[in-house]
Amino acid sequence: MKKLGIIIMMIGISISTISCNKEKEIITDALKFKKEYESVNNNNISIPQDNAIVYSNPTEILSILKKTGIIYFGYPECPWCRSAVPTLLNTANMVGIDQIYYYNAKEIRDNKHLDESGKIITDKEGTQEYKKLIEALKKVLPVYDGLNDESIKRLYFPTVVFVKDGKILGLHVGTVKSQTDPNTLLTKQQEQELSLIYSDYMHQVLGDVCDESC
Question: Of 82, 183, 197, 213, which one is least surrounded by beta carbons within 10 A?
Fold first, then answer.
């Protein structure tokens, strides 16, 4: 009986350790994100400590696009991202979203411009991972601005993608049209407008939207 008791105790300790490690991993992502974004605090944004951010990578993002989830593309130094993120996280908390997959795609993105003769010049080639992301999101991404070619798409920041059962419900780029200076905090009215956009999509992802057939 002693041996059995010891085995059960060891199993209990192992399960507890796994659970604690998993919780620690989630907290680490949240705190890491908070630290990254608040370290560039030129417009005094505040990131909740218990935010829903989970760091991701291109392979996982491509997998999520075939399933269900919310994906945020951005980077800490991006002023538009920093304007959007507090509202995104607060809305997620309000709606009940516990995971937002985050990927900083800045370094893998391509850079192009139009020369004087109208020829498209590639200043920096996007990585294979970026090209796969563009292909997967091609139907919903905006056109690459300034190239005069609607077939070329671009991942602008911030972009939030909403997916359910492998179907892209929609995506939102930037903040709201009335914001012209990203270094100025959103007004309460602008926050409400942006929050409504996010929450509408979030409820669709959760599947708790009631239409006429309810």
Answer: 213
